[in-house]
């Protein structure tokens, strides 16, 4: 008789866990419904490159140059002139109230200065309280404004002539040429959704037994820590697999996310990632004394991992220490893998290091969980 | 060979000593009652015996296996019924038993489950969720689950708490039937009638083992004298007796008054004094009950703690 591991005993625990899962209809529905809801909600809602932002126009003249400038700004897609202010003060008020993100002021002497070749100016004030709102709209301004002016003057060809021989910077926006936020968000959501459900569910798993008093019985019967751990963790691996399928199918059908890489590679990394998550949840489970505590511990972990993993904010934009800190989250590494595989078509060598990290997490969490597991009620 | 043979068990939680040098032996086929007030260390002692807690001091064997090093072997051969119902309420009776059968690797599962259901009269409720069962049925399920693997020793922790008299009676009949088949049973309880159904009892209070033996031995060794008083206005008599030297317990039983004391001479003197004041009261020697002995123990050990 093998004392440490028996498939029959593991089987007993697995069957029990699946029956319980099936009986707990609400949780079961949550495990499948929530990912889909979150994917749809966040996938459609989050936009890192906001367009069509409300803007106010302060223009006292309606000469052709002014009109050309306004329509040029509108065609960038960033500005939506839904306010026309009569005075600077009125525009100021609109911005202070948050009604508009931009105030574009075209002075009365704009046309005259253009015609005289006398360094014409327009003023664009942006509400930069949220820097990401303003940045896209502002970055396109320089070229858009000068081209619009040239077009209005009819001197486009002359300008092109003059520019010949000058430095030409070529920019390729690779993997996501149109800068669609969803291409970045949706693969990331795969990781975030898995993390949410996997860690939370397994964190509750063992504490539920303690709380309901069934732990005493489980420990009094011949089941080893390894069997109990696998019995708790494996069912959630199956749930995770279903979630992955749901998210990937939705990514394709709803958002048309390109999938250029290898599905096998992605799925294998997902497997390692989910394993690290359920083991992390189980580790939390061995520390918490109640389901409430387990929940709290899980949330302590969620927030930093969401903010520092590169899901919400560019990882490379964080200071060095924060980047180092971000490395301790499995999500950080998984995000790099899914984005690389789905969008860039990365092969194994390109993501091997990240997968290696995930394997390290799996070994680490499994070790800690087995050591932390109390075989007795002491 | 003794089925349970533990010596000098000590368990502390923080600075509280819950089990204080407990020594206990239980022979094969015996039904031993484990008695004591709430919080006296009964549950902790039982948990140590089945390997759920490690003692801070002490040693011993259960079924020949060392309690410190061979907990897993003990777990395989012991049936432990917890004080609180600790099977899965969201599983049916059948599913709970199947789970247990698989954990003990009983083959074929279905045969073991069916036989156990039949033996304990649970067959008709096989598909009922355990959470919807009444106290008596839950207890029956718990007993079924812990005897299914044919253990050699049953550890029952207050198995009949909150169970009606009929179910209790049936439960004890079952225990005696099992013991007749060679099973050894250690059962903790609060009920005196249950204690009297045991071959032997052990009394523990505040972690200390105070008495052990058959019911008659325990009562005899306690050295108590009991008188039964009859007559009118017994409430006033009781008040008069309360607190006199030699009078340890005064308890009304229906139309009579039981007066118990450990110092026979002092007790007789006190009664003689009271008899003078209340002429109509008759005093006859009575028989000391197990309950009297326990109440004496309880008040005695409380003094020790202060």
TrEMBL record, chain A:
Residues 135-376 form the ABC transmembrane type-2 domain. Its main location: membrane. Keywords: Cell membrane, Membrane, Transmembrane, Transmembrane helix, Transport. It comes from the Bacteria. Coiled coil: none annotated. GO terms for cellular component: plasma membrane. The chain crosses the membrane at residues 26-46, 185-206, 233-257, 263-285, 297-315, 355-373. It is a multi-pass membrane protein. Belongs to the ABC-2 integral membrane protein family. This is ABC-2 type transporter. It comes from Mesorhizobium plurifarium.
TrEMBL record, chain B:
Signal peptide: none annotated. One of its GO terms (molecular function) is ATP binding. The keyword 4Fe-4S does not apply. It comes from the Bacteria. The keyword ATP-binding applies. Keywords: ATP-binding, Nucleotide-binding. SMART domains: AAA. Residues 4-231 form the ABC transporter domain. Belongs to the ABC transporter superfamily. This is ABC transporter-like protein. It comes from Mesorhizobium plurifarium.
């Amino acid at each position: 008789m093998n004392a440490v591991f028996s498939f029959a005993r593991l089987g007993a625990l697995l069957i029990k866990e699946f029956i319980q899962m099936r009986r707990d209809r609400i949780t079961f529905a949550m495990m499948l419904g929530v990912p889909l809801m979150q994917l749809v909600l966040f996938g459609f809602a989050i936009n890192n490159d906001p367009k069509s932002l409300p803007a106010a126009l302060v223009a006292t003249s309606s000469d052709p140059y002014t009109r050309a400038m306004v329509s040029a700004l509108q065609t960038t897609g960033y500005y939506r002139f839904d306010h026309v202010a009569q005075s600077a003060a009125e525009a100021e008020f609109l911005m202070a109230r948050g009604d508009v993100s931009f105030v574009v002021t075209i002075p009365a002497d704009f046309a005259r200065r253009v015609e005289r070749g006398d360094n014409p100016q327009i003023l664009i004030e942006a509400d930069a309280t949220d820097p990401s709102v303003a940045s896209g709209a502002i970055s396109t301004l320089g070229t858009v404004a000068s081209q619009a002016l040239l077009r209005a003057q009819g001197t486009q060809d002359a300008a092109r002539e003059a520019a010949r021989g000058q430095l030409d910077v070529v920019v390729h926006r690779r993997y996501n040429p149109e800068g669609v936020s969803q291409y970045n968000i949706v693969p990331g959501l795969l990781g975030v959704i898995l993390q949410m459900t996997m860690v939370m569910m397994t964190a509750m798993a063992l504490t539920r037994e303690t709380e309901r008093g069934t732990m005493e019985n489980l420990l009094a019967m011949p089941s080893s820590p390894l069997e109990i751990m696998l019995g708790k963790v494996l069912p959630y691996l199956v749930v995770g697999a279903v979630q992955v399928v749901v998210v990937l199918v939705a990514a394709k059908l709803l958002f048309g996310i390109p999938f250029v890489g290898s599905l096998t590679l992605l799925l294998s990394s997902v497997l390692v990632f989910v394993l690290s998550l359920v083991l992390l949840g189980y580790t939390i489970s061995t520390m918490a004394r109640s389901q409430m505590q387990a929940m709290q511990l899980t949330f302590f972990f969620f927030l930093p991992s969401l903010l520092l993993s590169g899901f919400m904010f560019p990882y490379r934009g964080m200071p060095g220490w924060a980047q180092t800190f971000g490395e301790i989250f499995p999500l950080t590494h998984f995000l790099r893998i899914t984005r690389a595989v789905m969008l860039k078509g990365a092969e194994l060598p390109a993501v091997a290091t990240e997968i290696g990290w995930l394997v390290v997490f799996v070994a680490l969490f499994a070790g800690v969980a087995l050591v932390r597991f109390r075989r007795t009620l002491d | 060979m003794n089925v349970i043979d533990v010596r000098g068990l000590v368990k502390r939680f923080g600075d509280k000593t819950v089990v204080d040098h407990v020594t206990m032996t239980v022979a094969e086929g015996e039904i031993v009652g484990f008695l004591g007030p709430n919080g006296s260390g009964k549950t902790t002692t039982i948990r140590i015996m089945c390997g759920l807690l490690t003692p801070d001091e002490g040693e011993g064997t259960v079924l020949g296996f060392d309690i410190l090093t061979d907990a897993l072997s003990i777990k395989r051969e012991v049936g432990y019924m917890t004080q609180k119902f600790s099977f899965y309420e969201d599983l049916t009776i059948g599913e709970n038993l199947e789970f247990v059968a698989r954990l003990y690797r009983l083959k074929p599962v279905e045969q073991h489950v069916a036989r156990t259901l039949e033996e304990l009269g649970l067959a008709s409720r096989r598909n009922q969720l355990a959470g919807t069962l009444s106290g008596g049925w839950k207890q029956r399920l718990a007993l079924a689950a812990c005897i299914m693997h044919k253990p050699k020793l049953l550890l029952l922790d207050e198995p009949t708490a909150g169970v009606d008299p009929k179910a209790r009676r049936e439960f004890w009949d079952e225990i005696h039937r099992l013991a007749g088949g060679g099973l050894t049973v250690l059962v903790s309880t609060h009920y005196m009638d249950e204690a009297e159904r045991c071959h032997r009892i052990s009394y523990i209070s505040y972690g200390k083992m105070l008495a052990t033996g058959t019911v008659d031995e325990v009562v005899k060794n306690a050295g108590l004298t009991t008188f039964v008083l009859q007559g009118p206005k017994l409430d006033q008599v009781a008040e008069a007796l309360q607190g006199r030297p030699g009078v340890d317990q005064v308890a009304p039983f229906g139309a009579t008054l039981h007066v118990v004391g450990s110092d026979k001479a002092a007790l007789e003197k006190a009664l003689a004094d009271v008899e003078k004041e209340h002429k109509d009261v008759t005093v006859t020697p009575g028989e000391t009950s197990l309950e009297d002995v326990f109440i004496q123990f309880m008040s005695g050990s409380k003094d020790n703690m202060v």
